[in-house]
Amino acid sequence: MSKKSDFMVRLLDEFEPRRPFPKSEVEGFGLVELGAYMVLLRHMTEQQAEASVRALQKAYPDWNELRISQVQEIGQHFRTSTRKKGTDKLQSFAQVALDLKAFLQEVFQQTHSMSLDTFVRDMNEAMKSLPKMPTLGMSGGAYLAWVGTGEVPAHQSLVRLLDKLGLVAKTTGKKSSEVIAGVVPEGRGRDFSIAWYEILEHWDDPELPSYERVKILLETPHGKKSAQEREAALAKAEAARKKEEERVKKEEERERARLAAEDKKRIAAEKARQRAEEQARKKAEREAEKKAAAAEREAKKKAEAEAKKAAKEAEAKRKEQERKKAAEAKKKADAKAAEAKKKAAAKAAEAKKKAEAKKKADAAKKAQAKKKAEAKKKTAKKPAAKKTGKKPARPAAKKTAKKTTKKAPRVARR
Fold first, then answer.
1. How far apart are CA 387 and CA 7, in angstroms?
2. Hey, which of 64, 178, 235, 328 has its CA 20 to 30 A from 122?
3. Nearest to 104, CA basis, from 67, 58, 53
């Protein structure tokens, strides 16, 4: 075994792909199904990925319908051992479904169909499509090409890389496929396709380039040179970063100084503004106090005038009320006096009537007494009558006297 062949075998033995690949082809899976299987392997076990692909085949008549389906719809057909349910389960499958849709979209864009038959019919066209299918990557596409044709795909970029590494002979006048076939160890076409197309894809990866990840590549001059150039580039970038940091630091210091000066000016201007505002405020307060004092004096003067006017009006009202009260009192007194006068007149009339009645009664009594006296005189002149035991008859004069002593009619009082 030559030195180059020995190096190639060692590399394939030590190589570990960045992403999982099928350990063997799955029965009944075409290239599209196998690609979908590879996408699901990044999130599931081999058994789960295979069961999920078969469930999707049953659920969708063709892959194009799955390509345009909703993420939630696709996630319902994944077969995993997750204990999540409902919305949580669908959300956990969202990224898986998005990766699967992205792969199918890339297939559609490169082939204008949902078939990868070009990997079988035209390897040159297939190799042109590999860099444009980032979901599977160049290694994934190369693996599908190897499965479809049974041959290691020959990309011109890989031939150039192998040439730089000194692993192939000069390619003048030879086809890429012939060059590649000359360095593939017997029975290692699958491993070669996966390993070298991943190395090609990530040779200049900014975070972890292939020659840093696959250490055996550093044994080659180009690998060592690439590592040294990267180290120098990183050192240069680090120096540039530090220089930039220093520049930014100085710029920041200048900016801070400028801002400090501006702050100082701003503070001084703010203080001046505050002083001016304070002076204006005090002046306004003095003006306001003057206006308030003048307004207070005016209000006081007006209030005094109004108070005087009100007092005058109140005094006039009080006098008017007193006059009305005096007139009312006089009216009542006059009415009372008239009533008293009327009562006195009625009383005097009653007294006069009584006096006249009494006078008449006294005159009647005198007349009767006079009659009695005259009758008594007549009786005294007659001889005494015999006592017969009978009462003597009342003299007629007495009856007449009684009639004349009738009371005068009573006058009603007012």
1. 211
2. 64
3. 67
Q: How far apart are CA 157 and CA 177, in angstroms?
A: 12
Q: What angle do CA 153, 159, 160 make, to 5 degrees?
A: 150
Contacts of 80 (CB under 8 A, 6+ apart): 44, 48, 52, 93
Rounded CA-CA distance 277/227 in Å is 69
The string of DSSP codes covering 71-84 is HHHHHTT-------
- State the Cα torsion 149-152-156-161 to the nearest 10°: 160
Distances in whole angstroms, Cα of residue 329 to Cα of each of 12, 266, 268, 321: 140, 87, 86, 12
Identify which of 116, 118, 123 has the alpha carbon closest to the alpha carbon of residue 152.
123
**How many residues in total does the chain contain?**
414
CA atoms within 13 A on the CB side of 25: 14
DSSP letter for each residue of 60-72: -SSHHHHHTS-HH
Cα-based distances in Å from 119 to 55, 115, 129, 189, 252 = 25, 9, 9, 16, 57
The token duo for 401 is: 């006297």
Looking up tokens 């307004």 gives 295
d(CA 251, CA 261): 15
Q: Which residue has the tokens 């009415």?
A: 335
pLDDT, tens digit, for every residue of 91-149? 878 899 999 999 999 989 888 888 887 777 777 777 777 777 889 899 998 999 898 88
Record the tokens describing residue 244, joined without a space: 């930039």
Q: What is the pLDDT of residues 146-187, one digit of tens each?
A: 988 888 888 888 989 999 999 887 655 567 788 888 889 999
Q: How far out from the chain centre does Cα 203 lie?
A: 52
CA distances from 172 to 163, 167, 169, 176, 182 (A): 11, 15, 9, 10, 14
Task: Copy the structure tokens of residue 129.
Answer: 């499509």
Region at 155 (left for phi over 0; alpha for psi -120 to 50; beta for the rest): beta
Q: What is d(CA 218, CA 224) in angstroms, rounded to the nearest whole number?
A: 5
Residue labelled with tokens 């076409």:
189
Tokens of 173: 């006048």
